[in-house]
Amino acid sequence: MSGTQPSSVEPAVTRPEPFGARLAAAMDEQGPLCVGIDPHASLLQAWGLRDDVDGLREFSLRVVDALGGKVAAFKPQAAFFERHGSRGLAVLEEVIAAARAAGSGTLTIVDAKRGDIGSTMGAYAEAFLAEGSPLAGDALTVSPYLGFGSLAPAVDLAAATGRGLFVLCLTSNKEGFEVQHARTEGPEAALGGTVAALMAARAAVLNAGAQPMGSVGLVVGATIGDAVGATGTDLVAVNGPLLAPGVGAQGAGERELATTFGDARRNVLASSSRAVLAAGPDLDALVRAARTAAREAKTALRD
């Protein structure tokens, strides 16, 4: 009896390149700038657009078209799409798909700040991190305030699909200190003594040994002053990207970035929304504003 026997050798599985490595390359090439896509009603009006789904789509896709390949990352704020209901979410899916189709090296961080427990967190992970999901960008912002361990479904799925997470750590809102600066007790106190320090320590464990940096980052506001030192948060040890909202129109410049991030500056991805988007709707002006912001971020964080 002749014939070819089927091979029992399983085909090799190609693991996706980790988000941290892809983001590091994008930051080196384009500068450490993330442009937020925040379609405020007032911003739509300033662009001469209606505050409806059509205006939302026109605004968001113009930003992607103009800046794809010219900045390291986009950060669409999910809430401004969700407020338009299911049609707004469909626009968010379009924005994520358009950024991916551009093939420009500009990554997409979906700013949804999801956080829950058990199967519910698992469902959020599938929505925003699973391969093939229309809401899955390259990374997702998450909230750890039901316990860092509650994020396990997102951590596991992000690692499996080569995506990243940005965990809320030290935010610039005035209420943030109530939780983030709180002292921990028991064994967790050894990891830094405050909730913020604990979040950084947990991320550091997940990123241990990763080169050039890990894929589990933190959200650390650029305008928080000395909060990093006051909470004992070790940003250098995190070995992951540090997403820094508040650059530009919200007041953080070179001095504030140096004060907040110190020796961790090289891993900072400065996030700017209004300072760049206010230059629209003229696309050339939008590009100039983004390039200026990227150059200023590079000077503050890399030079």
Structure characterization notes:
The protein has helices spanning 19-30, 41-46, 53-67, 78-82, 85-102, 118-129, 152-161, 177-180, 195-207, 227-231, 235-238, 254-261, 274-277, 283-301; strands spanning 33-37, 73-76, 107-114, 139-142, 164-170, 216-220, 242-245, 268-272. With 303 residues, the chain is of the alpha/beta class. It has a single domain (19-112, 158-301), classed as TIM Barrel, CATH 3.20.20.70. It is built from 14 helices and 8 strands. α6 (118-129) runs parallel beside α7.
Overall shape: globular
CATH topology: TIM Barrel
In what range is the share of β-strand residues? 5-15%
Domain unit count? 1
Low-confidence stretches: none
Classified by CATH, the class is Alpha Beta
Termini separation comes to 71 Å
Average pLDDT works out at: 92
User: What CATH architecture would you give?
Assistant: Alpha-Beta Barrel
Q: What is the subunit organization of this protein?
A: single chain
What is the N-to-C order of secondary-structure elements (H for helix, E for strand)? HEHHEHHEHEHEHHEHHEHEHH
What's the CATH H-level superfamily name? Aldolase class I
